[in-house]
Every structure is written in C-alpha cells, then in structure tokens.
Amino acid sequence: MKIKKKKIKKIMIEKHREYDLIVKKILDPTEKRTAKLCVNPYLYTKEFEKKFSEISKSYSNLLEFVFQQYAKSSKIQEVLEYPEELETFLNSLNVYEKNLAAARIDIFVTENDGLKMCESNCEIPGANEESYFLEQEFLKIYGKENLKAMPRMEIVYNTLMKYYEIQADYFGLEKKSSLNVYLTQWRPEIERIMGEYDIIMDYFRKKGHKCGIIDPNEVEIRDNKAYAPDGNRIDLIYRRFTADELPKFANKKWQMAIDWDKAEVAIVNPFCTN
After folding, report:
1. N or C: which end of the chain has fewer CB within 10 A?
2. What is the torsion angle, in degrees rounded to the nearest 10, for the CA atoms of residue 256, residue 94, residue 236 and residue 129?
3. Rounded to whole angstroms, how far apart are CA atoms 55 and 152?
C-alpha cells in the first residue's frame, strides 16, 4: 500500500510540474505576472449553472435597460450622479439595439449553496483566456474522467460575431465572413499579459479571421473608417480597456472614443456601456 501511495504521489508531482511549466510558458512568457494554477478545480452541476445563469442574465438585462434609457432619462442621470464631462460624453454616443456583449459579474458561493454577487464590471469584456487555458490544460494533463470545461472561447467568439452583425446593420456595412479584428489595449498592459491575448487571437485566426492587438492610440480614423498601423481597414475592434482610462492614456482624451464611435467600425463593448 505504501509503495502504491508513493507511486501515485510521484505521478502527481510530475503532473503538477508539467502543469506549472506549460502555464508559465504560455500565460507568462515575459515573467511579468503570476498565473495561478487550478489544481483543485471547482465542480458544479447543471442545476447550479442554471441558478447563477439566471442571476447573470437578469443583471445584464438591467444594465442594458440603463444603457438604452440613459440619454433620455433625467431620473437615471440623476441617480448615477456622473460628472458633467462624463455625462456629456455618454450623451454623445451611439446606443445600439444591444450593447452589453460581455460583462464580468463576480458571483460567490455562500453557505448552503447560496449565491452572492459581490462586484460587477460591465466595461471590460475580458474573454476568460486565462481560465480557458488553465481548464483545458488541467483536463489534458490530469485526465479527469466525466469532467468538461465550459467552452469559454467559443462563447466569446459567438458573442462578438453577434454584436459585430448588430453594428454592421446599424452602419449599413457589408457583412464579411473573414474579418480584420483588433484587440485594443494600452501598451504596458499588452506587454504584461501578452500570453493571454495570444490565446484569443489564435482562436480567432483558427476561425478564419485576421487578428492582432494594438495600443488604442495607434488606431487611425480616416474618412470615417478605422485603420490599423499597416494601413488595412479594421472591421471589429475588441475593446479591452475602460473608458475612464481615456483622460489618462489616450492622446485625444474623450475625443478618441467619440471619433471611434462615429466611425464605420464595430466596437465591442461600445463606449455607451461606461
């Protein structure tokens, strides 16, 4: 029995080492961050998934209502108490049929399997690249039977394509099967977690799209269209920064977002979700 336990322990140590190495190699190639290992994954049932999905969908519907009504509802503006400069900015933006393509709602499990929403962020449409990679590699290395991970990248991909179509209809753009997609994020953040961005960019490329990442200041608006530094027109901007960062990092401050918003390019999430 002791020999068997030692053998199992040795095997698990090797698996932990393999997991640690691949995570550091892919998620932290520049050694500027620490990617956590999910060696003890949280398991949940379909019933539990349905329970927290209802909370998430309900809250998303509430946020979407606020986006739709903000510009014409003095009551909502009064309740939110935004600074005048931000209020003017939001009132100048496009509001589409649907705007909240992705949101992060932090839901924690309480005692007796209760749920509590502790935080929400409706403006950083993160694609869960880190969680996706950790889960996929965990299942591959540890070979847990009867377990499967949520198809995070496919959900994100389908969501972005849906919202691209909404904005393409709004601007009367030709719908393409192969898009020129750019993630936009400030340069220091790109360098810090480039490993994560590589995961989603590779996923888009496998779907037949061109995909890159640039600093927002590198996007050129010309003739009411958006262009990448290589001169090619951008079809979809996947925004990975928040609007409140514009005054600090954008060369044109709030005006940069307004120029993007008026240009014939799909932006997810649109700036009205601020």
Report:
1. N
2. 90
3. 18
**Are residues 195 and 29 in contact, defined by beta-carbon separation less than 8 angstroms?**
yes
Residues in the chain: 274
SS3 state at 75? helix
Residue located via tokens 């209802």:
54
Amino acid 61: pLDDT = 85
| CA angle (156 as vertex; 132, 20 as ends), nearest 5 | 10
CATH code, domain carrying 243: 3.40.50.1760
Cα 143 to the center of its chain, rounded Å: 28
**Up-side HSE of residue 98: CA atoms within 13 Å toward CB?**
15
Please state the domain count of the chain.
1
Which distant-in-sequence residues (6+ apart) come within 8 Å of 71 by Cβ? Answer: 90, 91, 95
For residue 269, whether the previous peptide bond is cis, meaning omega lies within 30 degrees of 0, is yes
Give the domain range for residue 158.
2-273
What tokens were used for 265? 């390019």
